[in-house]
Amino acid sequence: MQISPEKTKLIAIPGQLTDDSVKNFYSAIEDFCRDSKGRLSLDCSGLKNVTSNHVGILWQARNLCEKAGIEILLVEVSRNLARVLEVLDISDLFSLDIVDDDETIGEFTRTFQMSRDRNFEMTFTASDKDIEEAMDRFLGFIENFSDSDKYLFEIRTIFYEIATNIRLHAGQSADNKIKFMAVPDPDRALVMRFIDSGPPFNPASQIHQFNPDNAIKKKQKRGFGLIMISRMTDGITYERKNGELNVLTLEKKWK
Amino acid sequence: MGTDEIKKETINDHTVLINPGKVIDNNNAHEMIDIISEAQGNGYNYIILDMSDMEFISSAGVGSILGTIETSREAGGDIIICNASENIIHIFDVLDLTDYLTVEKDRERALAVCLAGK
Lengths: 255, 118
What we know:
- The complex is a heterodimer.
- Chain A is α/β, with parallel strands linked by helices.
- Chain A has helices spanning about 20-35, 50-70, 80-85, 130-140, 150-170, 210-215, 225-230, and strands at about 5-10, 40-45, 70-75, 95-100, 115, 120-125, 175-185, 190-195, 235-240, 245-255.
- The radius of gyration of chain A is 19 Å and the shape is globular.
- Chain A is built from seven helices and ten strands.
- By secondary structure, chain B is of the alpha/beta class.
- Chain B is globular, with a radius of gyration of 13 Å.
- Chain B is about 40% helix and about 20% strand.
- Chain B has four helices and seven strands, in the order βββαββαβαβα.
- In chain B, strands 1-2-4-6-7 form a five-stranded mixed β-sheet, with helices on both faces. Chain B has a two-stranded parallel ribbon with strand order 3-5.
- The chains are: A alpha/beta, B alpha/beta.
- The interface of A and B includes residues 154, 160 and 210 of A.
């Protein structure tokens, strides 16, 4: 397995700033600064409306990381946030991965970016063609980190099942875009995140006990995807963000 | 995912051989179910699924097999999987299905199971 020598971590900047969310955010950064070296990715996808308070916590995060010698990469940066940082003349203090959110993404006009620190991001629609193309691109990326045929096959299966599950629950149209990002932490695991704007749906809550004998006797034809995903991954978390986004994060240890 | 045509071949009065092609996923799982169900309805108790070309099977593909096996067994037959790659077998392993499926190494052994049970 080829691995990156750097450690990476993804921390989400809270969209809604409360005492707890800000405290948890700083706490996660302090933990990372204390325990790690390398780069820290901050997920800005929750910053729909950027306020001075958001800029304030970004600034504070940057100061904490600078003291620890850690570089910050801002991912899922909207055009709006990028403009705010430019106006304040602080955009050069961060590495930015800007999401082209003004662009209409239909025929996989993909926002495919392989970011500077080996993270992976793309946006695609839930059509069969786009899912297949997105899956192939992602697998091409993961081949840089694992040469295990079984691992890659499981990743393909997980990706396919999640993407088609999102399509099932969100419906397939040109407006249904899936944002996908992955952070390969070479010391531990691959972390994958799917973000969609469909109705609230928590796959993690739908995973039930599975009895193969019963399934066969009952001639069950559906409902195996989430079981497969849960058994092929080492962690699944779901969050409904800002009341409008499903954020599903999966972790899979390297094999 | 590019799916091939599902091929069906009658072996004898009791047995049909089906080659699903490279992929069974959401796009062709229903077709698999239709083809298997039609064979079962026409009195073929044994169905051999030759997976020699198969590269990927989704949960819907697994469902197309699991959901139809019992009908063959109720009729005194079975659905027999053969020539499956390690990756396809791994999917069955993940779901703890290996004890519940009839999996043979190749077509000849699958046929032998059909002839023995006829």
